[in-house]
Known about the structure:
Elements: H1 3-16, E1 19-24, H2 26-33, H3 51-56, E2 59-65, H4 74-94, E3 99-101, H5 105-113, E4 117-124, H6 133-141, E5 144-148, H7 172-184, E6 187-189, H8 195-204, E7 210-214, H9 228-231, H10 234-237, E8 240-243, H11 247-250, H12 252-259, H13 271-285, E9 290-292, H14 312-321, H15 326-350
Parallel strand pairs: 1-2, 2-4, 3-4, 4-5, 5-6, 7-8, 8-9
Helix pairs in contact: 1-14, 1-15, 6-7, 13-14
Amino acid sequence: MTDSDARATAALALDLSPVIDGHNDWAWECRLNRGYSVDGLEGGLRSDTDIARLRAGRVGAQFWSVYVEDTLPGADAVQATLEQIDWVYRLIARYPDDFHLARTAGEVESAQASGRIASLLGAEGAHSLNDSPAVLRMLARLGVRYLTLTHVHNTSWADSGTDVPLHDGLTERGVSYIHELNRLGVLVDLSHVSPATMHAALDATSAPVIFSHSSCRALAPHLRNVPDDVLARLESNGGVLMVTFVPQFLSAAYSDWFDGPRTTPAPPVTVSDVADHVEHARAVAGVAHIGLGGDFDGTDEFPAGLEGVDGYPVLFEELARRGWSAPDLAALAGGNVLRVLRATDAAYLGSSATPPALEL
């Protein structure tokens, strides 16, 4: 396929389905570096994200990560998570022609039809709950549509992939949290968790899961990546792996360099490496079970060609050159995760009419 044909195929795919990205830490970046200001975000920023670049990248919907560090003590983590949610609400109010709050698949489609970027919320790490199902229920009412079960460290009921395991996956209370997430229509996000937690959650859930920002362990054996025996379960579960662009999750050579003294230049990581992970996930899980979760503004470096949110079309052109059709690229861009949202929307909208699966 010529470069011209690849560009045309990528453009058609993004017309069929704009990008729905699973994870962006712009709110956290603005907490750290802008005092939570929502002014001056139109373009030309040093961050990976701004409005002009989102438009250039054909981003039609974004799960904004309402992340806080898991070293914050319980109630402080809850407060900081609410501050993150408030930032997203203020972003939408400040730029109403560009953003629209979305909680359901229908609201995503309505925002896109009006030319705005659908803004969804995802809470990264159950430490944000202070082990309170009531907090979870209130976050759901504020629009949070996924919960990452852990971050870097274990919670009291789930093992992280980057901590010493304590629970062999999930405790009994952790299983009850999965049931409550299912009842609420809040997606179970298995990025950051251990393989044992992945399997336990897949055993417990009655709804599709997501990995909001992870890649494939078969290609890069990082603890944050997903083993093939887990990927193979997504077809029966209906879930989606959203491939991330973090270099140490894409390349073993880069990961070794990153964890070492860094006295030599970093090994190159490019859009081709991302495409390799996307193709591996398709081969193992199936084309209906893949998506994208760039993790922009969540790490310092990104692959060449994907340095910011304007880079998505470059990835789609690379995959088109590898023979991907426009419909398959559209499924990757957003069609698959939109299906997962739609499958859980009824639970999300109706949860107030059903009794909690987990009380205080």
